[in-house]
Every structure is written in structure tokens, then in C-alpha cells.
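Sequence in, structure out.
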Amino acid sequence: MSLTGPSPYAEGVGNRFLVGLIVTVHFAFVAYVVVGGVPAIRWPWLFWPHLAAAAWGLSGLLIPLACPLTVAEDWARQRAGQAALTRGFIDRYITGVLFPARYTMPVVGLVALVVVASWLLTYRQWSLHRSG
């Protein structure tokens, strides 16, 4: 047993912890994309960061982009000795897990409705605040 560096076991545990942390952050980001516009109704300045997050989320659905969090998760998984990812985050953890895959389009529509509704309510609050 060498005391000169970390053991492979300790490195694997650290990387598995990192995988869990990345997945947690990824879930938080997806949740923010879905409902992050709601706090903007009360605090309109939050609209802009939510717009950026929603734009990234939408572009990830429309264009085959490599999400930095998925890339980081894949890297950490491989460093932990796990198999490389073969699917993206949404396909791996959400579609078919949180809801049946056949409901993907209605769920995407519902998410879009929640986002747009929160933005419309934010605009309404902002315009009422400016006029009164």
C-alpha cells in the first residue's frame, strides 16, 4: 500500500460523488427552466436570467448541442470507472422515468405553457408597477 497518493478507490468514490453532484445541479437547472419564471412575477429582474436559461433549454431541444453538464457527467462517470453515457440527460433521467415516453410532446407543451405564462404574468406585473 502506497501512501504517496490517493488510492484508486478514493479517486473512484470522489468521482462518483462528483457524478451525483453534477446530476443534482442538472436537475436543478431543468427545474429552473420549467418554473424559474414564476419568481420573476414577484421580482421582475429575474426575468433576464430565466430567459437565458429557457433559451438554452429550448436550443438544446431543437439543435443537437452538447450540454456542458452532460459532458461533465460523462467525464466524471468514466473517471469513476463507469460506462460512458449513451443518451442525454433528458432522455436518461426524465423521459420514460418521470413520465411515459409517449407523453413527451404534451409534457414539452405544458413546460412551454408554464414558461410563457410566467413571462406574461411578469410583464403584467411590470407594466402595472410602471403605470401605478
